[in-house]
Structure formats: structure tokens, C-alpha cells
Amino acid sequence: MKKTPLHFDQSLPAVYGAQQKLSPRIAHVLAHNPSPFTFRGTGVYLVGDARNVTVIDPGPNDPSHLDALLAAIGGRTVSHILITHTHRDHSPAAAPLKAATGAKTYGYGPHARHDGDVEEGGDRDFVPDVTVRDGDIIESGGGRFQCVFTPGHTSNHMCYALDEEKSLFTGDHVMGWSTTVVAPPDGDMGAYMRSLEKLIARRDKILYPTHGSPILNPGPFLRAYLSHRRMRETQIGRALQRGDDTVPVLVRTLDAGLAPALHRAAALTVEAHLKHMIEDGRVAALEDGRFVSL
What we know:
Layout: E1 19-21, E2 26-30, E3 43-48, E4 52-56, H1 63-73, E5 77-82, H2 94-101, E6 104-107, E7 130-131, E8 137-140, E9 143-149, E10 158-162, E11 167-171, H3 189-202, E12 206-209, H4 218-241, H5 247-254, H6 263-279, E13 283-285, E14 291-293
Parallel strand pairs: 4-5, 5-6, 6-7, 11-12
Antiparallel strand pairs: 1-2, 2-3, 3-4, 8-9, 9-10, 10-11, 13-14
């Protein structure tokens, strides 16, 4: 794969609670939950017309956010609530939104019980009313969506493609402002990289991540995203050959200057890369917690 520079867009303004129109069919409401993992906050997508709307990733269960979301919906009928995955910044508002509108929730499934605490944490209360799988079609008041299964960031991560606009709502699988955390045991780097390859082959015209601005030129960006992951594994292999053979040492070597709040996420992502490299036969784990390059 040809190496492509990876450029992030961190220009999204923090306009909380107000509906921002992105296309004739798509609008965006930003929740007031900024953090090192959510960037400006959770971007909730409203997809539809003057009568019907589909809500994608309704966000945190915060009363002021829910009020803003309901105000943006107005008198329209909410036909579907689509969940990309079950982190607490994405799915908890589904329950009060369902109670207020009567709309059913859709998703791959509940949160993995073996997941550790990282990022915004897991929403273990969410169970979709309707379970969806890769390739399923959802005919909604907002449009025709195809389900695109993208495990990796979490084992239950689902993207949703809007046929009418050739666009893809990517949740946290791809974000325009940053790379995505892949944290074991639920996060899986091998699955994540295969999911990136899957999106590269799709050729969508625009990506709408839940955090950050839309990605207007998906092909080069996705190739750069995947190239970055492959380059990181090359860096890990070289570091192991130099004797940097534990996760803490690798994080200090590869992520010097990283903000303390991100150290644990960085360590888990390094662990995810090492697990993938072990599966591929490039690395072996020793009983004392060290790793060696093969």
C-alpha cells in the first residue's frame, strides 16, 4: 500500500445543543461532553426530512442534552434509533429518547461483559430492540440504511451507510480528529485493521464520525489511517529489537510527550498491536511480561 500522509481536522467549533445542518437530509447536534476521548463531544446525527427522522448515536444520558435533542427533532416522528456501539458517550440517551418518542433501538448487541474500563466506559444497560447484522437493510423515515459491521474498536461496532447520499456514519471506527483507541480485551487490532480494509473497498463519498468533522475525501484518509496502524507495528517491531520489550517501555518510547490522561489508552492500544503481531507470528510473549520480535 502506498504511504499516504495522515492529516487530522480539529477545526470543529464547540456549538453545543444547536442543530447544525450538514446536508439537505443530515443534521448534527453536539452534546456537551468534551474530553480527551470525545474531542468536542458526541455528535448526534439526525437523518430525515420535515416529517420523519432517524437518530444515530443519541449520546450521553444528560437531561440538558436530551432537551436539546428533542428540540432539534421538533414535531417530527423518530422512526429509528441506530447505535454504532455501546460506549457511554454513544448509547445511554437511547433509553430516554425511546421513552419520549416510542422509537425502537437498533444495534449489533449489548456491551461485551469482559471489556475493561477505558475511554468513556461501557454502557452495560443497553440492549437493542432490534439486533442487526452485516448487510442488513433498515428502511427508515430518514432513508435507506445498510448495516456495515466493523469490529475492532469494540466487538459490537456497526457503521450505517445512507444509500441516498452514499455516506457512512462511522461511529468511533474512523474519526477525523484523531486515531481510534483499540483497547483489549474487547478491542481487537487485527479485526480493526480488517474493518478498515473493508471500508476502503466500499468507496463511500463522505464519512460522518460521531466525534469530529465529516471526512470529505474518505479514500486517501482511510488508506492513511490503515498505513498509520501498519507503521506503528513496524515501529513496535524495531523497538523490540532494540530491547524495549515491555508495554510501559514501549509507550514511553513510541509516545513520548503524551498527555498523562491518555497513557492508559496508549498502553492498551500497544497491547492490541502486540496481540495482533503475536497472532501473525511476528512477536512472542514471555512469561515475565516481556515481548520478543521473531
